[in-house]
Amino acid sequence: MKTGRHDMILRLIREYPIDTQGELLELLKQNGFNVTQATVSRDLKDLRLIKALGPDGRYRYTTDQPRTQNEYPKFHSLFDHAVMSVDRAGHMVVIKCASGMAQGLCAALDALQWQSIVGTLAGDDTIFCVMRTTEDAAEMVEKLNKMK
C-alpha cells in the first residue's frame, strides 16, 4: 500500500504543480488513496521531496535536489575512504564498504543523480545499485574501480 501511494505521489508531483500538502491529499483521495494529512506529511519526508521555485514563480513539490559544484568531490573523497570492493551481478552493482560507511556513501552517490541508476539501497557495509541495464552495471563497475 505504502509503495503504491509513494508511486502515486511521485506521479502526481510530475503531472501537477502541487504546492501544499492539502492539494496533494485531495489528489490522492481522487485517485483512491484515503489517507490523512499526517500520512502525507510522512510520505513527503520518506520520499525526500522538497519545494522548489517553478517557472511561474510559485513553489511546488519536486524530487529535484539542489545541486552543488562540490557533490562529485564529496563522493570521491568518501569513496576513497569507504570502499573495499565493487562488483556486479546482472544489472545490480554491489559496493562493499568499511563498516558504518555505506549509508553516507550511498547518500553522496544518490546526490550525483546518475541517470543509469534506477535506485540504491544501503545497509551498514553494503550498497546495492539497481542499474537500468547490464551494460550500465558493467560501465559503473569499471568507472568505480578506476576511482580506487
Number of domains: 2
- Taking all residues together, what is the mean pLDDT? 88
Helix content: 40-55%
Give start-end ranges of low-pLDDT stretches.
none
CATH architecture name of the largest domain: 2-Layer Sandwich
Q: What would the principal axes of the Cα set say about the shape? A: elongated
Strand order of the largest sheet: 3-4-6-5
Distance between the termini: 41 Å
Our estimate of the beta-strand percent is 15-25%
Let me know the largest β-sheet: 4 strands, antiparallel
Annotate the secondary structure layout.
Blueprint: H1 2-15, H2 21-30, H3 37-46, E1 50-53, E2 59-62, H4 71-82, E3 83-89, E4 92-97, H5 102-112, E5 117-122, E6 126-131, H6 134-147
Antiparallel strand pairs: 1-2, 3-4, 4-6, 5-6
Report on this structure.
By secondary structure, this protein is of the alpha+beta class. It folds into two domains: 2-62, Winged helix-like DNA-binding domain superfamily/Winged helix DNA-binding domain (Arc Repressor Mutant, subunit A, Orthogonal Bundle), CATH 1.10.10.10; 71-147, 2-Layer Sandwich (Gyrase A, domain 2), CATH 3.30.1360.40. Helix content is 48%, strand content 22%. It is built from six helices and six strands; from the N terminus they run αααββαββαββα. The protein has helices at 2-15, 21-30, 37-46, 71-82, 102-112, 134-147, and strands spanning 50-53, 59-62, 83-89, 92-97, 117-122, 126-131. It has a four-stranded antiparallel beta sheet. Strands 1-2 form a two-stranded antiparallel ribbon. Strand 1 and strand 2 form a beta hairpin. Helix 4 (71-82) runs antiparallel to helix 5. The termini are far apart. The relative contact order is 0.12.
